[in-house]
Design a protein that fits this description.
Blueprint: E1 3-4, E2 7-8, H1 15-21, H2 26-35, H3 38-45, H4 58-68, H5 81-89, H6 92-109, H7 115-118, H8 121-124, H9 127-165, E3 168-173, E4 176-181, E5 190-194, E6 202-214, H10 216-219, E7 225-227, E8 234-235, E9 240-252, H11 258-289, H12 319-329, H13 335-341, H14 344-382, H15 391-409, H16 413-431, E10 434-436, H17 440-446, E11 450-453, E12 465-471, E13 474-476, H18 487-499, E14 506-508, E15 518-520, H19 523-534, H20 539-545, E16 553-555, E17 563-569, E18 575-582, H21 583-588, E19 590-594, E20 600-602, H22 605-621, E21 624-635, E22 643-645, H23 655-658, E23 662-671, H24 678-687, E24 691-695, H25 700-710, E25 720-723, H26 724-731, H27 740-746, E26 750-754, H28 758-770, E27 780-784, H29 790-795, E28 798-802, H30 808-813, E29 816-818, H31 823-865, H32 872-891, H33 914-941, H34 958-977, H35 995-1014, H36 1026-1048, H37 1065-1069, H38 1089-1121, H39 1129-1136
Length: 1214
């Protein structure tokens, strides 16, 4: 018989049997496990030991992977470069240009007979060059766009794999607990599971304490499910442990786990659907040809190939599968998540882009109309000619000029600048310990006005040590000697700490003897275990005597109990209960205490008051967290005064009676020192206009002490430091409802909220965000690490989760993960965020100047000279400089500390401030003056022949070349001016810190010289003399001097109306759906021509918005296909892919546009012909919410409701 690693190669149970086993729940599950002989027997069949785990040898692990699969789900292959090129080609304006260029090419080769007599052959022979040049420049634009998308996607996959690599899990191998990467888990592994974990695989419980799991990501049921070996032993991948702890045997991984099965179906469904959509499109084309006159809308085909919404697909899965998969199909269609998707900046940009699109389109249409009318009047009326075939090429040429104006008018570099800037920042922020999960979070962070921070681990080091103890009426400020403690008390303390701390918490010897011991697991428990080691005893020997399997009952820590209790069998029969927790909570339940020399005394009210005043408050005022350890005994025989006599086993469910009348053993003060860099970071935040608030579960005195050390509260300032109870009393009305106007009285002064529950944290965050007290509306960032911080992290504008101490649930709800758990990294995030915002503003300032000038020149030129002074190819080159290259150059500026010296912008500040508008208009005036001077008198000034009124087929003139060259020079020098947006004088400051900027700038200059000297017909240029070059340079340098003049004009004098992109984002996110829903090329009610035109302009924008979409889609797709262990995303899967119709929903890659109407139910399938959009109904399932969804929060307020709340867990972590 074949053997592997000394055991038979054939397992006692097959993959199929294991898969079937995991289909069962509850009692069925228990019976099914019993059929196989119980969990112990299944362990034997898988050759693993419940206490020692696998041997961990490579051969064994490989064999298991081959037999049962590995713990990962293969991701969807990324789009190829050619696919991206094809997508970039879908852009409407580019298509118009391509068609026009091809027509112009065709016309240039077409020669009617009589024409040869009129024209000299030489002149027309170059007619084809312009058409070709336009085609080439279109290709360049397409390649640049595709390349950008491609690099984005690659970068993102890198980031994703890094996030995945960070997810590790506790597994027992060779009888030791090891942290292994989730993808290394195999069937037969024994995993330790604890509160806050995201389960990486399916398994059967071997042992559990008080375990509750949130299975909403699989079932849509929001209630936490109790799990236990005897009534429901099946735990599933992708679910969250909300309470308790335990050990499980892994039975299914990767594509065989429950979540994996769903993903596989999802993937197959998507492929099926894509095939289906192609078929639908073909049919739709046929439909269109024979479209009836009944006014049926063929909603399936929109005007732009990448705007297609998929059509419904008949359900191919059989019924039983469908029933099982129902939980994915019935995802909540949450309005809230959409609000968050659209960041402040994106909302402002969308509005701006639409305004510019309108203006540009209007001018483009006017230009074409004027050119054509002038041509017709001149040719047919004045000269009285009749139509000739070569006139067609004139008309095409006019159209090309018009389209080019549109191309220049629409700032499609904008989204590119945003994405580049964000991508660059995200990459750099990784180095600053910020792992950004949602791109727009980094820009939102720049606008943050308030930070609600945790205390433990964020402001403090989260390296806890016991520094004071109170045992038998002795208060020790240093480590007591074990010999000084009465033996019976000492042993009880040792046992109480060793047994009643989770066995996942351990203190390990350091690798380097000079360093401190390593703390693994819960840091408060580690401090207590460290106290045992400090007494010179070993906690492990006690743990070996009481393995977890022997525990009678465990009441695990949660934020309602604020304590943890463990019941173990007593050597002489009966039970012993140990409790530890927040001292004021435990002392309330104590009836006895060990006094002097270990005498047992009654613990009276009086003594309790004294103990609080003399021991606990002074400890708390030193910033210590106080923990009390107590015990109680249940004995069968004669009971002592502090014991309880029992006949049979107590009712362990009756927790209030069990954990009561305790005997206090000791009180310890645990120090968690403030991180040395925090006070400075908080000072920076306050200078930058950001209010830092501390929200903690610790008691008031500890919190106040730490807040003072950090500088959150300063002596003799007017501020509030209150407890959760008091906070709730102030903000709720008589019926217990939270009232915004009451909250508005509290939050502006609130600095510290102590003894708070996660619900309080959520209420506070929501209250600040919704508040309209301040002029600019607050933007709130929140830090959190506990499972129950989920709602607050989701609700906040930016949620920070702790990378080290954070639970998986918190990380899932967050936008940015702090890989070093350090508050000062948040300050770095603020700096980068502001930098993103500023980079985009710089780019806008530069871009709009060029836009205004190019459009005005083309328009007035067309009216005055019957020809645009800037030719189509030249404008495309300018467009390339100012869009793609400038966005690269300006979006990659490094942040400086000056960014932290100004106040945050807030939500409603206009995107283009008055200073920027002053610069834009000022520079535009200068450039237009120069260009028109050159156009009308330049020929006389420079003594060259005039290019005005030249014949259509005449070659390029030096006159128009000088105009083009001066324009580009002015643009290039204006790029320096654009580097400063707050009216600083020195525009060259820090120029050498940005190599990208100067490389691009020099590169562009060189290219311009080549174009002018050797561009000839292709670029419609003629080489210039040195003197003419110097003139062009002179005009270019003039922009720098003029810029200094413009800066001198006081901004205050400029009317406010000139700031653009103002207004509250929410007001216009709803109004922007025109590109999708309200406009349908094939509908019978044709939109107005103007609408079509600006939509065309907008699609140009959308092409590049796809860059941002590429980011979002790669993020979301990857998050969804993330290897099983990252089934975090089932949540996001359910909320973002909310879908109400037949399974499967739309393809996962088609992510929404930036300017899409968040309220429209875009994700549901298209309605049938006779059904209008607005009659879509939600299926009843749609309203199932995942538990820690912010939408639940409104159920929270009334205390009565508290039991259903996700149990808060945020505080004295014991």
């Amino acid at each position: 018989m074949a053997t592997i690693d000394g055991r038979p190669a054939q397992y006692g149970i097959t993959l199929k049997q294991l898969r079937d086993l995991m289909e069962h729940r509850g009692r069925e599950g228990v019976n099914k496990v019993t059929e196989y002989g119980g969990v112990q027997e299944i362990c034997k069949k898988l050759y693993t030991s419940p206490s020692e785990g696998l041997s961990g040898s490579q051969v064994d692990l490989e064999h298991r992977r081959e037999t049962f699969g590995s713990n990962s789900i293969p991701p969807k292959p990324p789009k190829t470069f050619l696919q991206l090129v094809w997508e970039a080609l879908q852009d409407i304006t580019l298509i118009i240009l391509e068609v026009a260029a091809i027509v112009s090419l065709a016309l240039s080769f077409y020669r009617p007979q009589q024409e040869e007599l009129v024209f000299d052959d030489d002149e027309t022979s170059h007619g084809w060059i312009e058409g070709l040049a336009i085609l080439i420049s279109v290709i360049v634009v397409v390649l640049v766009t595709a390349f950008n998308d491609y690099t984005k996607e690659r970068q993102f996959r890198g980031l994703q794999s890094r996030i995945e690599g960070e997810h590790r899990f506790a597994v027992i191998r060779q009888a030791e607990v090891k942290q292994v990467s989730v993808s290394d888990i195999v069937v037969g592994d024994i995993c330790q599971i604890k509160y806050g974990d995201l389960l990486p695989a399916d398994g059967i419980l071997i042992q559990s304490n008080d375990l509750k799991v949130d299975e909403s990501s699989l079932t849509g049921e929001s209630d936490h499910v109790k799990k236990g070996e005897h009534f429901d032993p099946m735990v599933l991948s992708g679910t969250h442990v909300m309470e308790g702890s335990g050990k499980m045997l892994v039975t299914a991984v990767g594509v065989n786990s429950q979540a994996g099965i769903i993903f596989t179906l999802l993937g197959a469904a998507v492929d099926e659907q894509e095939a289906e959509i192609k078929k639908m499109k073909k049919e739709a084309k046929k439909q269109r040809k024979k479209k009836s006159l009944t006014g049926a809308d063929d909603d399936n085909v929109t005007g732009n190939s990448h705007m297609n919404s998929p059509a419904p697909v008949p359900n191919k899965l059989n019924e039983s599968q469908d029933a099982k998969e129902n939980h994915v199909a019935s995802a909540p269609s949450s309005g809230d998540s959409h609000k968050k998707e659209k960041s402040v900046l994106q909302a402002k940009l969308t509005k701006l882009a639409i305004q510019i699109g309108y203006a540009g389109s209007t001018i483009a249409v006017l230009t074409v109309v004027i050119l054509i009318i002038q041509f017709c009047v001149k040719t047919y009326v004045v000269e009285g000619k009749s139509w000739e075939k070569n006139h067609a090429s004139h008309l095409v040429r006019h159209l090309i000029i018009g389209v080019t104006v549109l191309v220049v008018a629409v700032p499609e570099g904008l989204p590119l600048a945003v994405t580049l800037s964000l991508a660059y920042s995200v990459k750099k922020m990784m180095k600053d310990n910020n792992l950004v999960r949602h791109l727009d979070a980094c820009e939102t962070m720049g606008n943050a006005t308030a930070i609600c921070s945790d205390k433990t681990g964020t402001l403090t080091t989260n390296r806890m040590t016991v520094v004071q103890s109170y045992i038998c009426e002795q208060l020790c400020k240093s480590m007591p000697k074990f010999s000084d403690i009465p033996a019976h008390v000492g042993n009880a303390i040792l046992q109480g700490i060793a047994v009643n701390c989770a066995y996942t918490s351990r203190v390990m010897p350091p690798e380097d003897p000079t360093e401190l011991p390593k703390q693994v697991g819960n840091k408060t428990e580690c401090a207590l275990l460290g106290f045992v080691l400090g007494l010179g005893k070993n906690y492990q020997t006690i743990r070996d005597d009481y393995p977890e399997e022997s525990f009678t009952r465990v009441y695990t820590f949660n934020s309602v109990r604020k304590s943890m209790s463990t019941v173990i069998p007593r050597p002489g029969g009966g039970y012993r209960l140990f409790t530890k927790g927040a001292s004021e909570m435990i002392l309330n339940k104590c009836a006895f205490i060990y006094g002097h020399d270990g005498r047992l005394e009654k613990f009276t009210r009086d003594m309790q008051e004294r103990l609080l005043k003399q021991v606990i408050e002074p400890m708390a005022c030193d910033g210590l967290r106080t923990i009390c350890i107590a015990f109680r005994e249940f004995v069968p025989g004669k009971a002592e005064i502090n014991q309880v006599h029992i006949e049979n086993e107590p009712n362990w469910e009756d927790e209030d009676n069990i954990v009561n009348n305790l005997t206090c053993l000791c009180v310890v003060g645990i120090e968690d020192p403030v991180r040395p860099e925090v006070p400075d970071a908080i000072r920076k935040c306050q200078k930058a206009g950001i209010t830092v608030r501390m929200v903690t579960g610790d008691n008031l005195n500890t919190a106040r002490s730490i807040a003072t050390k950090c500088g959150i509260v300063k002596p003799n300032e007017d501020f509030l430091v209150i407890e959760g109870k008091e906070f709730n009393r102030r903000i709720r009305d008589s019926t217990g409802e939270v009232q915004q106007h009451l909250l508005d009285k509290v939050w502006p002064k609130l600095r510290v909220l102590a003894r708070s529950s996660p619900t309080d944290k959520y209420t506070l965050v929501k209250g600040i965000i919704d508040s309209k007290v301040t002029e600019n509306r607050e933007v709130v960032a929140v830090t959190g690490d506990g499972t129950n911080d989920g709602p607050a992290l989701k609700k906040a504008d930016v949620g920070f989760a702790m990378g080290i101490a954070g639970t998986d649930v918190a990380k899932e709800a967050s936008d940015i993960i702090l890989t070093d758990d350090n508050f000062s990294s948040i300050v770095k995030a603020v700096m980068w965020g502001r930098n993103v915002y500023d980079s985009i503003a710089k780019f806008l300032q530069f871009q709009l100047t060029v836009n205004v000038v190019a459009v005005v020149v083309a328009f007035i030129g067309a009216c005055a000279v019957q020809d645009s002074p800037l030719k189509a190819v030249q404008m495309l080159w300018v467009n390339l400089i100012m869009d793609t290259l400038a966005s690269l150059a300006l979006a990659t500026e490094l942040p400086t500390n000056d960014l932290l010296l100004r106040k945050p912008y807030g939500r409603t500040k206009p995107l283009i401030s008055r200073t920027m508008m002053k610069n834009i208009l000022g520079q535009a005036v200068y450039q237009l003056t120069v260009i028109f001077a050159l156009l009308f008198v330049g020929d006389k000034m420079l003594d060259i022949e005039s290019g005005r009124g030249a014949d259509l087929n005449a070659g390029p003139t030096q006159h128009f070349t000088v105009i083009f060259n001066s324009f580009v020079m002015m643009t290039l020098f204006n790029e320096f001016n654009a580097r400063k947006i707050h009216g600083q004088r020195n525009v060259f400051e820090g120029i050498f810190t940005n190599p990208i900027f100067y490389t691009i700038w020099i590169g562009t200059c060189v290219a311009q010289i080549v174009i002018i000297q050797y561009g000839k017909m292709a670029f419609s240029t003629r080489s210039l003399t040195l003197e003419q070059w110097l003139w062009c340079l002179f005009f270019g340098l003039g922009t720098l001097l003029w810029g200094q003049l413009v800066t001198t004009v006081p901004t205050r004098k400029i009317p406010k109306i000139l700031s653009w992109g103002r207004g509250h984002p929410e007001e216009y996110t709803e109004a922007i759906a025109i590109g999708e829903e309200k406009f349908d090329v094939d509908s019978d009610k044709k939109p107005r021509a103007g609408q079509i035109l600006w939509i065309r302009g907008l699609t140009r924008l959308q092409t590049q918005l796809r860059v941002i979409r590429a980011f979002k889609s790669t993020l979301e797709d990857l998050e969804e296909r993330r290897s099983v262990h990252s089934l975090h995303s089932l949540h996001s899967l359910r909320s973002s892919r909310s879908h109400t119709g037949p399974w499967p929903p739309r393809p996962l890659s088609d992510i929404t546009y930036i300017d899409e109407d968040p309220t429209a139910n875009k994700l549901s399938p298209q309605p049938s012909k006779n059904e209008r959009d607005d009659h879509r109904l939600l299926s009843p399932n749609t309203l199932r919410l995942p538990t820690h969804n912010p939408q639940y929060a409104h159920l929270a307020p009334s205390p009565a409701n508290n039991s259903e709340l996700p149990k808060p867990v945020h505080e004295t972590r014991i």
